[in-house]
Amino acid sequence: MWRDKIVTMANQIATFFASAPREEGVAGLAEHINNFWDPRMRAQLFAAVEDGAGGLQPLVLEAAARIRRPPIACRQNL
Amino acid sequence: MSLVLETDFGTPASRSEKSVTLVIDGNAVTVPEGTSIMRAAMEAGTQIPKLCATDMVDAFGSCRLCLVEIEGRAGTPSSCTTPVAPGMVVHTQTGRLKAIRRGVMELYISDHPLDCLTCAANGDCELQDMAGAVGLRDVRYGQDGANHVKAREGGEANFRWMAKDESNPYFTYDPSKCIVCSRCVRACQEVQGTFALTIEGSGFGSRVSPGAHERFFDSECVSCGACVQACPTATLTEKSVIDIGQPGHSVVTTCAYCGVGCSFKAEMRGEELVRMVPWKDGKANRGHSCVKGRFAWGYATHRDRITKPMIRASIADPWTEVSWDKAFAHVASEFRRIQDKYGRGAVGGITSSRCTNEETYLVQKLIRAGFGNNNVDTCARVCHSPTGYGLGKAFGTSAGTQDFDSVEQTDVVMVIGANPTDGHPVFASRLKKRLRQGAKLIVVDPRKIDLVRSPHIEAAVHLPLRPGANVAIMTALAHVIVTECLVNEAFVRERCDWSEFSDWAAFVSEAKHSPEAVEALTGVKAEDVRKAARLYATGGNGAIYYGLGVTEHSQGSTTVMAIANLAMATGNIGRPGVGVNPLRGQNNVQGSCDMGSFPHELPGYRHLSQDATRDIFEKLWDVTLDPEPGLRIPNMLDAAVEGTFKGIYIQGEDILQSDPDTHHVSAGLEAMECVVVHDLFLNETANYAHVFLPGSTFLEKDGTFTNAERRINRVRKVMTPKNGLADWEVTQGLAQAFGLNWAYTHPSQIMNEIAMTTPSFAGVSYDHLDQAGSVQWPCNEKNPQGTPIMHVDGFVRGKGKFINTEYVATEERTGPRFPLLLTTGRILSQYNVGAQTRRTENVRWHDEDVLEIHPHDAEQRGVNDGDFVRLASRSGETTLRAVITERVAPGVVYTTFHHPGTQANVVTTDFSDWATNCPEYKVTAVQVAPSNGPSVWQADYDEQARKARRIAPLEAAE
After folding, report:
1. What is the DSSP string of B341-377?
2. How far is A12 from chain B (nearest CA, A)?
3. pLDDT tops 70 at residue B546
4. Is residue B146 part of a domain?
5. Do B518 and B632 lie in a common domain?
6. Distance from CA of A14 to the nearest CA of B (A)
7. Mutation site, B497, B553, B613, B628, interface A, largest A CB count within 10 A
């Protein structure tokens, strides 16, 4: 359930950055999530990415490589 | 301690920079041009007798007591209405003047009761003072004959006499004591701007009348207290003064209601508060107040206050009172147990935007240093977090750009998504004063708020946009400014990044952003948008004031950036009279943000990822700080439902009532194993708490609040905390139980620590505040006296940044099931969740939340005025009474969230701002239908709340 919300939130952020030039948008999105998201939230995001990208906007997928991977402990809770 | 006495100079100060020298009673006096003789004399220490003059209102010249003689001029002009002139020679005391004044006083006293000993104004009566000053020894006319004093005379009813009007819960109007000086009438007009009072009748029959011969409570009076403050006699008197007597000492402190941050004198007798009187030297309010700060402080001694700590194993159990030490130890052991079992990040806390800076700082310190994580957030999450993000991106700091005085130099005011006459009433009075002087007003709001049209105020343009269309409207305004060549190019070239501007200008110029193109979606006539844009861009000093109608949307942060774009494009930044001014909701929401209450940043808005910043605190606190951002309030609740967040310490917030989607909040709280609520009352959130720590009021502690203009004001203790500890002491007790070696003995030491670690507060100390009265941060070596206006010589971030603001419709859309849009707000007499104001006589003005609905929508649904209606969204439903009004547009309904019984937030959804998770309170798709009574949810909730508030009786001592 939380994962669905996380996907929505990531997509909302992507929508904002969509009006910036592509490179700036990808960097901005990744920076935003790195700056404001608790590791648990990032873990949910990576789980969604690894699930096969269900519902995530392309900009999120592109930015994922630049988003800090949360510590393993966080990911184990999923 | 003694009373803080304020000098009444009789007439307002002149702003002129040119000075004039004259001679008063043989002494040369130099004052600014335009000063009255009365004021000039007072500044030189000579008090000319007066009754109708007071420096809170303009001179009137009616009492004929302040007459003077001027050499070379005929007659005896009144000193209040006569301006000084160079070389003028004035005599304030001559045989002729003495005789006239005595004669005038005789007439006054011949129609005034002589019950001075038992009069509530005894000790604070200007009429009595003047009788003494003019040497009144007898009244030749006697007390008989026509009068307004006696109810009956010679067995006959006296038709001139009127009974006291006791209808206002906070003050009485005794017409028999009125001297018709008009001070109250003028205060209502000039200071408050409500025009509720007038003088009815003429000559001897004239008297003060609220509305058209109505009772105060039934009139337009908003109970701000300005008339009571202006009254020189006992005609308008606080009921608390009638009840207790005149105060003996007073202390200057700061109101704990809204973000205006008014300075008050708490006037005391012993530890009993007699009254709160606005302090003339308070730079936010300049001697004015509203019904909340002036009168609604009775909650501080309300019987519902909890004064002992309490714990319980389960929320189904009644509470058990325990000692402070036991409560602290219990919290520490529970939180440690939770952390051992679920991980370090499984606990967190919420700092209070109602508590002091010092207390807020300590809560975030406890969480970062004691809990070892960054799961700290504050009420700003649900109000102005988009301001922080948006202005931070555009200007380099989240700070509002102006001080409140700035409005006095504004030519065009744009109010967006704010309702200052209800939400920020004292600022609204200052704004209305400026509007009456001729400044133009643009209102951008779905509702026809009072500012759109009220006595002597009318908006030049009202843009009644559909809720959720903010970005579209703002971008359309920018479209007009750019395409009609109204950009202040010199400003943009000098202050902003030109290439970013060019990119933005091209973006907003696209045809799809024109007012005509977005008309269907915003519901606003394109011509009005064009008119507003032209006025703002070309009308002189343009200032934007905005509130939660901007921030509490899915695109809240985007709208804030769009506002910043407009201000930069028109050059309305960096001088008095202009700027971007967020009107903050709670008294210390600015301060709580400044103090590092957000999960991603340390005090002073420095991101956790900065090694140098972490290093400062790590060294001082002797801990290692987690560099990862923590959870925000909505994320905490999500994590709780998910099972990874299990304990929370909530200081002075009632998230169950104030946060959106109540079902989700209660599910989150219910999933936690240790909820600690620290508050004055068993609030709604406490229904889900396992530990209750009683809080203290703003009257019971020392500290500082920071208002919407970044002004740091002192809060001063006037009475002993009923619960035994100030809130900072409670947090310290908790910290000690967590093994932290805190040993603060006074909040000034906490402020010193803040100053030591936070550059924008480097120059702040209690000594400095005591000496300066207040300062606006940044206050440091560069700006030792603080910073009234930001970005004067350039933006904090360097070049101002234009950001493209694409409109994206919220996911929350109307449809066949939910065809109306609900938007929410507040009302003058109530404050936030109402925990304080519901426990005062303010409930007389607003005892339940009602649903405003347009006649057209009401008719379609068969809803009559006053009917109970069911308000349903996809999140939940509640019932409340309908009020049919054209203040809302067709298709839009509105309500407030002050009462737990009618919780609007059962209906609001979990959508939130994309950048900050600030909830989208302002847009919920709903349906309205007639109803017979409370919803199932309301009935269940009442039962649960009743059970959750039980306190186990103490066992008899052996």
Report:
1. HH-GGGEEEEE-SSS-HHHHHHHHHIIIIII-S--EE
2. 5
3. yes
4. no
5. no
6. 9
7. B628
A4 touches chain B (CB under 8 A): no
Chain A residues in contact with B599 by the CB 8 A cut-off are 38
Assess whether pLDDT exceeds 90 at residue A73: no
- In tens, the pLDDT along A16-61 reads 998 888 999 999 999 999 999 999 999 999 999 988 757 899 999 9
Same domain, B348 and B465: no
Pairing of strands B320-321, B453-454: unpaired
Residue B408 and residue B541 share a domain: yes
- Per-residue pLDDT tens over the stretch B363-375: 999 999 999 999 9
ipTM above 0.90 for this complex: yes
CA distance A10 to chain B (A): 8
- Check which CATH number belongs to the domain holding B534 and give it: 3.40.228.10
Mutation for A interface: B632, B641, B914, most A CBs within 10 A:
B914
Residues 20-39 of A with CB under 8 A from B: 20, 32, 34-39
pTM of the model: 0.94
Q: Which of B559, B582, B605 is the last residue of a domain?
A: B582
* Total beta-carbon pairs less than 8 A apart between chain A and chain B: 65
Position B129 confidence tier, pLDDT thresholds 50, 70, 90: very high
Residues B604, B672 within the same domain: yes
| pLDDT tens per residue across span B763-790 | 999 999 999 999 999 999 999 999 999 9
Q: Model confidence at B596, in pLDDT bands (50, 70, 90)?
A: very high
- Count up the domains in chain B and report the number: 5
Q: Count how many domains chain A has.
A: 1
Question: What value, to the nearest 5°, has the Cα angle with vertex B282 and ends B280 and B287?
Answer: 35
Residue B4: inside a domain: no
Q: Which residues of A touch B600 (CB under 8 A)?
A: 35-36
Assess if residue B2 is contained within a domain.
no
Structural domain containing residue B941: 820-947
Compute the residue count for chain B: 958
Six token digits for residue A22: 């592509």
Of B629, B632, B804, the CB nearest to A35: B629
CATH value at residue B337: 3.40.50.740
Does residue B230 sit within a domain?
yes
pLDDT-derived band at B832, boundaries 50, 70, 90: confident
- Spatial distance between the Cα atoms of B388 and B469, rounded to a whole number of angstroms: 21
Residue of chain A nearest B629, judged by CA positions: A38
3-state secondary structure of B408: helix
* pLDDT tens profile B381-408: 888 889 999 999 999 998 999 999 999 9
Residues B40 and B117 in one domain: yes
Considering only the beta carbons, identify the residue of A13, A32, A38 that sits closest to B630. Answer: A38
Q: Which residues 45-74 of A have a C-beta within 8 angstroms of B?
A: 70, 73
Nearest residue on chain B to A71, judged by CA atoms? B628
- Among A28, A54, A61, A3, residue whose Cα is nearest residue B557: A28
Tell me the residue range of the domain where A39 lies. Answer: 2-76
Same structural domain, B458 and B468: yes
Give how far Cα B175 sits from Cα of B124, B150, B487, Å: 18, 11, 57
Tell me what the mean pLDDT of segment B713-719 comes to.
Answer: 97
Q: Do B26 and B39 belong together in one domain?
A: yes
Identify whether residues B557 and B601 lie together within a single domain.
no
**Residue (of B940, B939, B945, B937) closest to B872 by Cα position:** B937
Q: Which residues contact B323 (CB under 8 A, 6 or more apart)?
A: B309
Q: Which of A16, A17, A32, A78 to mutate to test the interface with B (most CBs of B within 10 A)?
A: A16
Amino acid sitting at position B872 = A
- What is the residue-averaged pLDDT of chain B? 94
